[in-house]
Structure to design on (965 residues):
């Protein structure tokens, strides 16, 4: 076993609980705190408890370990922090500490086992990686594992969850319509490692990172397109951090919105059909706050004739979480739905008939929230709106 | 200590989900934003036995009735965002956190008032009002996390106070649960009714700190003001009616100056010639600390004034013209719009500089604007060996709420403890320049009489005397109470006394053996048995000493201790 809080000390973050001003700004933006209204659940309260544990060099008790995972890692606490504490990294390292104590929640252990055995989070055979392409098999025929400059990285959720397959299908349709020469990795696509990064299992995630980068480089890929912000963040932020910046040199990683915007600007696609709908946009945390990417999706939506973009009160860097991040949907499914419900209510206030985002996790969560709230608002992924607006 | 059965009864009253007596929870709710030096922590000994989060006024009432009957101390708390000790549980008991009473109950657009649960967060209230095209006149710089009830109970001024006054000027009516559980609306309850309604309960206890009102005192028909800034010592505020205003444009501006005197002169002229919504300054020291953190605006001078106007476009244009003239007259520079916007968005972030500490020792005091220049000079000379940052916000009364921050490091225990005197000195210097305490809480209880005014303080203490003589409701706040030392400190005092007594005897026998032989030959320490006997005697003496120490009011300890801390700081810093 490693020394207690070693990683935290190594990165000089063990002082952060003392730097905390205890102002509590983080509390009323924290989905977990707002769900419980107990300070033990807030970032401020957790820092308070950790300060004592770190000072006394005591391990994180089991009940506290559970509360550490009662968090969506949405980063709202970091965004509003009075003393600029790098809280996202801090929570990741604390989760790593929980892992070192073998106190990961059961669902995290299950995901860990699954990835170790099958290279995906669903414990399914890698041969089924391309099941999602069934509805677009004619468009992907002969494209699996071929050399191309553009690759589409579907990720585990889209690959294996039938309710999310449409996101991959839509992206393929757009690529086809734009005449993009693309490839998909097929069963050579391994989990991006994001569940490990979220749980603080960096060493295990490193093996996956090495494999995926090698697989992409072998195919001569230069641009990788993602529907999943979690995968995108893993490639663009965690991989360089783990493997060194040179490992990802020559590769660019684009979320779907940015890719579509590029196609629009290059004139490869054009919206001509009217799309007379009011759309409220939900910023996925892993794209927005984590990577400061807010504009591409808005620019794409604004380029669609007839579409009226509605902003929620909490948008961009102040956007509230959908409830699905940080593995909360697995560790605490019921609170996760309550958090989703709150976001749906906020969307309803805009008067929009469609709530949209670009993230498989947000898609699942917000759909759950709509059901929970019995809301009449409809959820659509950005790829779906783009495909409908293009008439594909 | 609360017994297991009492815990269960309290949980039944509040609801299982809204009650906790777990250690990790009680420790979180036993602190506020101030970092206390270890020894101060032992002397004050804040530790709650349980936390309750009531959801209705009825629950609060039942809770208070039960706690009073069972002599369980109660400490009301907003969201713990103050640093004056107003929400610290000094005698154990139950911390009553109000954040679940967080609804907007009524918006009256004719009377332009809003009624809210006292636990609502200012930020949330403002967000919701804005949807209706309304807002509040003033809100604290801690608005993203502080409760309306917390600010009303602690007092102070904030953003908007330059135009619309402090928190007291925002309050129209309060619903308060008195210590005996009775619920009143303060606007409809005259001071006289309040005094006569509450029956005398013949508790024994420390009533010597409370005064009596003069016989010819004038009572007011509305008792609201007695509960404002009273830190929940007279009752728990459950609902609040606030004034509201129409939501209008805000135009933030930033101007910078080359010297303190130019900046202060500009502040005086701005206040005289215009009616700003917000008028705030930082001095060069604060500016440089922000610069170190990459948070300083790129301004021409290092003395920076942030001034925001509120109103119609025409009103703002007129004010802007006057402002430009004033800034020019004092050789200042009106900074670009981006700088002004940045500073406006930073109005909630005075504690950025904590990162330089990693701790901060803060202190705040009201100083008349006319005395500001002299006060800052005095501060600079008094604390010439200390790093500190100074900022201030001007109120509609022409007072400046001057906030001083001393970056420090609480991990350096002795130096941090000794540095504690600075917070007290800041207030004393302010008083010398015609100022007054900013908020009372616990640490400023020595200033209660001057803060509330002789007459109101007499009424408040009389009310406290009648309704809560034993001080079960937020003891030690506003009305200074005796110390309750921690068990650790009590034992330490007894142990030290146990060692000191035999050592003193041994030394004394060496120095004056004839006196001992003549008068008290049986007092000696010459073997282990006699050492142990006198050690036990010493422990008993120590026990008696702790009992005496526990009778000393906190305010006395602070005033006696401050000079020692000041001297110690000079030695250890």
């Amino acid at each position: 076993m490693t020394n207690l809080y070693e990683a935290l000390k190594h990165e000089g973050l063990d002082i952060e609980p003392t730097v905390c001003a205890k102002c509590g700004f983080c509390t009323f933006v924290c989905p977990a705190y707002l769900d419980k209204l107990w300070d033990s659940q807030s970032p401020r309260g957790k820092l308070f408890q950790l300060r004592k544990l770190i000072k006394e060099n005591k391990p994180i008790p089991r009940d506290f370990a559970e509360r550490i995972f009662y968090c969506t890692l949405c980063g709202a606490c970091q965004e509003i922090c009075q003393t600029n504490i790098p809280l996202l990294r801090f929570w990741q390292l604390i989760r790593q500490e929980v892992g070192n104590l073998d106190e990961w929640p059961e669902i995290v252990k299950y995901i860990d086992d699954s990835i170790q055995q099958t290279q995906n989070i669903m414990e399914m055979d890698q041969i089924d990686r391309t099941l999602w392409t069934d509805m677009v098999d004619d468009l992907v025929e002969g494209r699996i594992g071929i050399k191309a400059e553009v690759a589409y990285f579907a990720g585990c959720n889209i690959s294996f969850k039938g309710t999310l397959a449409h996101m991959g299908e839509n992206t393929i349709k757009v690529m086809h319509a734009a005449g993009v020469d693309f490839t998909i990795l097929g069963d050579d696509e391994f989990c991006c490692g994001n569940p490990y990064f979220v749980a603080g299992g960096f060493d295990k995630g490193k093996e996956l990172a090495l494999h995926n980068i090698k697989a992409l480089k072998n195919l001569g890929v230069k641009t990788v397109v993602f529907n999943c912000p979690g995968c995108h963040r893993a490639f663009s932020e965690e991989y360089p951090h783990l493997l060194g910046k040179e490992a990802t040199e020559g590769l660019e990683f684009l979320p779907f919105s940015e890719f579509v915007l590029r196609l629009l600007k290059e004139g490869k696609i054009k919206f001509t059909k009217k799309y007379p709908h009011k759309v409220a946009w939900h910023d996925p945390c892993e794209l927005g706050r984590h990577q400061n990417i807010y504009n591409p999706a808005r620019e794409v939506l604004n380029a669609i004739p007839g579409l009226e973009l509605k902003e929620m009160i909490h948008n961009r860097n102040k956007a509230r979480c959908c409830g699905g991040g940080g593995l909360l949907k697995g560790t605490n499914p019921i609170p996760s739905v309550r958090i989703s419900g709150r976001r749906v209510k906020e969307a309803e206030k805009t008067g929009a008939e469609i709530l949209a985002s670009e993230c498989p996790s947000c898609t699942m969560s917000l759909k759950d929230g709509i059901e929970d709230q019995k809301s009449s608002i409809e959820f659509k992924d950005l790829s779906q709106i783009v495909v409908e607006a293009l008439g594909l | 200590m609360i017994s297991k059965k009492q815990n269960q009864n309290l949980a039944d009253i509040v609801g299982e989900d809204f009650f906790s007596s777990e250690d990790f929870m009680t420790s979180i709710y036993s602190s506020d934003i101030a970092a206390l030096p270890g020894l101060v922590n032992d002397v004050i000994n804040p530790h709650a036995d349980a936390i309750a989060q009531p959801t209705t006024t009825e629950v609060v009432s039942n809770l208070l009735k039960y706690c009073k009957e069972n002599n369980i101390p109660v400490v009301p708390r907003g969201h713990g965002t103050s640093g004056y000790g107003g929400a610290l549980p000094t005698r154990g008991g139950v911390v009553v956190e109000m954040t679940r009473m967080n609804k907007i109950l009524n918006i009256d657009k004719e009377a332009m008032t809003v009624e809210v649960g006292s636990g609502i967060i200012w930020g949330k209230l403002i967000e919701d009002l804005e949807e209706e095209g309304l807002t509040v006149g003033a809100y604290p710089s801690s608005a993203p996390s502080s409760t309306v009830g917390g600010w009303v109970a602690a007092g102070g001024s904030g953003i908007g106070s330059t135009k619309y006054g402090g928190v007291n000027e925002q309050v129209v009516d309060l619903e308060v649960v008195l210590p005996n559980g009775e619920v009143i609306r303060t606007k409809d309850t005259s001071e006289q009714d309040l005094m006569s309604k509450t029956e005398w309960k013949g508790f024994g206890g420390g009533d010597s700190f409370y005064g009596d009102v003069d016989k010819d005192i004038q009572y007011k028909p509305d008792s609201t003001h007695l509960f404002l800034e009273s830190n929940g010592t007279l009752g728990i505020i459950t609902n609040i009616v606030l004034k509201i205003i129409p939501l209008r444009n805000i135009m933030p501006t930033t101007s910078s100056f080359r010297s303190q005197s130019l900046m202060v002169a500009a502040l005086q002229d701005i206040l005289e010639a215009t009616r700003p919504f917000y008028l705030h300054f930082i001095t060069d020291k604060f500016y440089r600390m922000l610069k170190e953190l990459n948070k300083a605006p790129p301004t021409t001078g290092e003395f920076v004034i942030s001034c925001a106007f509120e109103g119609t476009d025409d009103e703002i244009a007129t004010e802007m013209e006057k402002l430009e003239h004033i800034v020019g007259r004092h050789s200042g520079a009106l900074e670009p719009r981006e700088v002004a916007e940045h500073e406006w968005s930073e109005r909630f972030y005075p504690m950025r500089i904590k990162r330089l500490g990693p701790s901060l020792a803060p202190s705040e005091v009201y100083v008349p604007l006319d005395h500001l220049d002299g006060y800052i000079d005095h501060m600079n000379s008094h604390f010439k060996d200390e790093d500190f940052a100074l900022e201030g916000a001007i109120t509609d009364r022409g007072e400046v709420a001057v906030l001083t921050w001393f970056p420090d490091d609480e991990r350096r225990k002795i130096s941090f403890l000794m540095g504690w005197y600075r917070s007290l000195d800041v207030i004393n210097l302010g008083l010398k320049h015609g100022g007054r305490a900013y908020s009372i809480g616990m640490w400023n209880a020595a200033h209660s009489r001057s803060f509330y005014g002789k007459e109101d303080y007499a009424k408040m203490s009389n009310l406290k005397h009648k309704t809560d003589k034993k001080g079960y409701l937020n003891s030690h706040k506003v009305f200074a109470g005796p110390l309750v030392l921690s068990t650790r400190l009590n034992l330490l005092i007894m142990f030290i006394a146990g060692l000191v007594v035999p050592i003193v005897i041994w030394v004394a026998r060496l120095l004056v053996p004839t006196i001992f032989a003549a008068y008290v030959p049986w007092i000696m320490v010459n073997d282990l048995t006699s050492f142990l006997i006198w050690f036990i005697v010493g422990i008993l003496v120590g026990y008696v000493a702790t009992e005496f120490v526990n009778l000393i009011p906190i305010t006395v300890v602070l005033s006696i201790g401050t000079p020692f801390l000041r001297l110690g700081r000079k030695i250890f810093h």
Observations:
- The first strand of chain B starts at residue 19 and ends at 20.
